[in-house]
Specification:
The complex is a heterodimer of chains A (217) and B (240).
Chain A lengths: L1 H11 L2 H5 L16 H19 L2 H7 L4 H31 L6 H4 L8 H25 L4 H21 L16 H32 L3
Chain B lengths: L1 E11 L4 E10 L3 E5 L6 H8 L7 E6 L2 E2 L4 H5 L2 E5 L10 H8 L8 H11 L12 H14 L4 E5 L7 H15 L4 E6 L2 H7 L2 E6 L2 E7 H8 L6 H13 L2
Parallel strand pairs in B: 3-8, 3-9, 6-7, 7-8
Antiparallel strand pairs in B: 1-2, 1-4, 4-5, 9-10
Helix pairs in contact in B: 4-5
Classes of the chains: A mainly alpha (217), B alpha/beta (240).
Chain lengths: 217, 240
């Protein structure tokens, strides 16, 4: 498992995938739709898939002494690794905004979504959707990447738009909580996001293994 | 002794069928796989590597079926194609550093030895390599993990006559070290130069599998060269 991840990181990955992890820090930006940070991270991962396609990476991997499902596993491990790196930065930003910077006027007077547990949960949902729609879509053909990414972009911005709008509805202001306000609600929403991520990624992985086994390279 | 056995391989496409393909690869010998473009050489080779799924047939390496022993078998074989460059912007060294971790049989001394033998610079990027060097790079990877069988798809296509000759000499040299070669080509003079056995495929069917001398004796008429004999047979096949 370690070897195939190493192969992904050293040979297949685009440098942009690593640089775009830093967009996780957009969770610190006031007056900006913070979930766009998650989208930019997926854009970096997309570059790696494009790179993989152009360098005959899948064929190379399939010739290594590993099972075909391990080729799929390598891609998913890499994607999850990049996503978790970005989530760590987002978590650090959320912790800062929820503690040291909790009373900062630039965050308090922010019309857009606050970077809190709900936002983190939605970031997990966006990554889960990326894995299901884009990565799963890639393994239908192993060369068509444009269409699944466009579908993902549409779904992604629908999620971001919904997330940004929800807390303005009466009775849903708790979604935009600061500090330790609405702690259990926020924790519950984040946990729901994590569960969604795990379920979507696992189902997508299983489906991709099934599809890849049937592809003629 | 056959170390690779292909029996009754079938693969159907809308416009092409591989039909009951059977042949073998002998230990320490060079087997040339000839046929015109589109005859089914690459389809057969990809089936042998489990890159495509045959509709039916049996593929065995060292007596073991490929389907159930793919990981183990792939540790003992190497593959190269003249037309594909892996990771053009990575150096040979970068690629080797990763690939060696997949093989418990990787031999660093052999790697250094073949690097020198092939005249390769490990700090060169794949895109800086000539077509011949790319094939040698794939041979380097395969031989450094002690591959016993090298399967090469059109390794001499696109090479100038000097590079082709150099590569074929290399095959003969490595054969003496016990490596079995199976290489496809549509350049018949390459087969004449170095093959011990010839497998001839036309329109998805194996026409003949024989030792080279026997093949020439059987199919060459009135002192025809091997190339002339194959061309005549192809023409006859086209005319029905």
């Amino acid at each position: 498992m370690g070897n195939i991840l190493l192969k992904e990181m050293k040979l297949s990955a685009s440098g942009l995938s690593y640089v775009f992890v830093l967009f996780g820090l957009m969770f610190l930006l006031p007056g900006y739709p913070v979930l766009c940070g998650a989208f930019f991270t997926t854009l970096g991962i997309y570059q790696s898939f494009q790179n993989a396609r152009e360098t005959n990476d899948i064929m190379f991997s399939a010739l290594l002494p590993i099972a075909k499902k391990d080729v799929v596993k390598g891609k998913y491990l890499f994607v999850c690794f990049i996503e978790m790196c970005s989530i760590l930065l987002m978590m650090a930003a959320v912790l800062l905004r929820m503690t040291v910077l909790v009373d900062s006027p630039i965050y308090r007077n922010n019309a857009l979504m606050n970077a809190n547990g709900f936002a983190l949960g939605l970031a997990f949902v966006i990554y889960g959707l990326f894995n299901a729609i884009f990565v799963g879509g890639f393994f239908k053909t192993i060369y068509k990447i444009g269409r699944p990414f466009i579908v993902f972009i549409i779904v992604n911005f629908a999620v971001i738009g919904t997330g940004e709008a929800l807390h303005h509805f009466p009775g849903l202001s708790g979604l935009n909580a600061f500090g330790t306000e609405q702690f259990w609600l926020q924790t519950g929403l984040m946990t729901s996001g994590i569960i969604t991520y795990v379920v979507l990624t696992y189902r997508s992985f299983k489906q991709s293994c099934f599809r890849f086994e049937r592809i003629d390279l | 002794m056959s170390i690779v056995e292909i029996k009754n391989l079938n693969k159907g496409y809308p416009a092409f069928n591989l039909k009951e393909v059977s042949f073998g690869i002998n230990e320490g010998e060079i087997t040339g796989f000839i046929g015109r473009n589109g005859a089914g050489k690459t389809t057969a080779i990809k089936s042998m590597l489990n890159l495509i799924h045959p509709d039916s047939g049996d593929i065995r390496y060292f007596g073991k079926p490929l389907a159930e022993n793919e990981t183990e078998i792939k540790k003992s074989i190497g593959y190269s194609t003249g037309s594909i460059a892996w990771y053009p912007r990575k150096t040979i060294k970068d690629i080797v550093e990763v690939v060696k971790k997949f093989y418990d049989t990787w031999d660093d001394d052999a790697y250094i030895r073949y690097l020198k033998m092939f005249g390769l610079d490990e700090n060169k990027k794949a895109l800086e390599l000539s077509e011949g060097m790319k094939v040698k790079c794939n041979l380097l990877l395969a031989l450094s993990h002690n591959a016993k069988v090298l399967i090469l798809d059109e390794p001499t296509s696109g090479l100038d006559p000097f590079s082709r000759d150099e590569l074929l000499e290399l095959f003969i040299r490595l054969k003496k070290e016990g490596v079995a070669f199976f290489f496809s080509t549509h350049i018949i003079s390459d087969i004449e130069k170095c093959a011990d056995n010839i497998v001839y495929i036309s329109k998805g069917e194996i026409i003949s599998e024989l030792p080279k001398e026997e093949f020439i004796q059987r199919f060459s008429e009135k002192g025809e060269s091997l190339e002339d004999a194959i061309l005549r047979m192809e023409r006859e096949a086209s005319n029905g």
